[in-house]
Amino acid sequence: MSAADLRARLAALVEEARQAGRLAELVGAWRELAALAAVPAGPVAARFGIVGDSPRMRAVFELIAKVAPTDVSVLILGETGTGKELVAKALHQHGRRKSKPFLAENCAAVPPNLLESELFGHTKGSFTGAFADRPGHFVAANGGTVFLDEIGDMPLAMQSKLLRVLQEGEVRPVGSNKVLKVDVRIVAATNKDLAAMTKQGTFREDLYFRLNVITIQLPPLRERTGDVRHLVRYFLERVSGEMGRPIGITDEALAALEAWSWPGNVRELENVIRRASVFADGAIVPADLGAPIVPGSEA
């Protein structure tokens, strides 16, 4: 049901409730209508499935448009919560490999002794718990894209093995003497300063240059002028659909969100909207946002 249809239905319900004296239904309908009226005006600005229209994000979109059709390695830099995986998926979905698999691995989330198996696969019996042969991401995504998130947390020993894969285009599963040819595009991401890490000896310089053919720097949300409003509208539409009721936001609450510094970036904003929607009585008010966005609020 469109917003116009919902408004018409609510208006009819208001009139019916008024005539029949059903005050509770009238109040409920009024709250829904007020929530709809409290949604930020205008369409959600987005490109490549990424919400935003600030100058910084328009520059990112232009770079994605130029780089996606190629096969060059891309290094995505940005703070936690800025949407690095969304950019990686956009590069894949708008490139020539879009019909092939896209597989992602968070290098910080997998124990070092298992990361090699996750990426390159293993043979049956190669280690405790290896009950069958298993292809790693590079084999499973052959012809497609492998996204290595938090590449700065990859152990040095694994960095050497990854470098060989990039140089030779082949992998050797754990416990196997055979090498397998693979053809994948590599997209990596990190919130760390890899250039500084190469000087400290904690990240291989040769691997850094292999990964850093093209760099896409994602701006933090605090530097994306005007994008909070677009993101709020986008998240409100999603949460309204999930909760089965329209949820809006008052101008005062929107102003508080636009004034916040967002250390957790877009991910933090989504969490705040979801939490506030639980407490909202039709439309989110400043008190629903909670501290520290609104000091002294009880939400």
Ordered list of secondary-structure elements with their pairings:
Blueprint: H1 3-20, H2 23-37, E1 46-47, E2 50-51, H3 55-67, E3 74-77, H4 84-93, E4 102-106, H5 112-120, H6 137-140, E5 145-149, H7 156-168, E6 170-171, E7 180-181, E8 185-190, H8 194-200, H9 205-211, E9 214-217, H10 227-243, E10 248-249, H11 251-259, H12 265-279, E11 283-284, H13 286-289
Parallel strand pairs: 3-8, 3-9, 4-5, 5-8, 10-11
Antiparallel strand pairs: 1-2, 6-7
Helix pairs in contact: 1-2, 10-12
Question: What do you see in this structure?
Answer:
With 299 residues, this protein is of the alpha/beta class. The protein contains 13 helices and eleven strands. It folds into two domains: 28-54 and 220-299, Helicase, Ruva Protein, domain 3 (Orthogonal Bundle); 69-218, Rossmann fold (3-Layer(aba) Sandwich), CATH 3.40.50. It has a five-stranded parallel sheet. Strands 1-2 form a two-stranded antiparallel sheet. Strands 6-7 form a two-stranded antiparallel sheet. α1 runs antiparallel to α2 and α10 packs across α12. It is elongated. The mean pLDDT is 89.
| Structural class designation | alpha/beta
Work out the count of structural domains.
2
What ranges have pLDDT less than 50 throughout 5 or more consecutive residues?
none
Number of helices: 13
End-to-end CA span: 31 Å
- The third-level CATH topology of the largest domain is Rossmann fold
Helicity level, as a percent range? Answer: 40-55%
- State the major sheet: 5 strands, parallel
- Tell me how many strands there are: 11
Strand order of the largest sheet: 4-5-8-3-9
Order of helices and strands: HHEEHEHEHHEHEEEHHEHEHHEH
**Share of β-strand residues:** 5-15%
Overall shape: it is elongated
Q: What is the averaged pLDDT score? A: 89
CATH class group of the largest domain: Alpha Beta
Could you say what the CATH architecture of the largest domain is? 3-Layer(aba) Sandwich
What Rg is obtained from the alpha carbons, in whole angstroms?
A: 24 Å
CATH superfamily descriptor of the largest domain: P-loop containing nucleotide triphosphate hydrolases
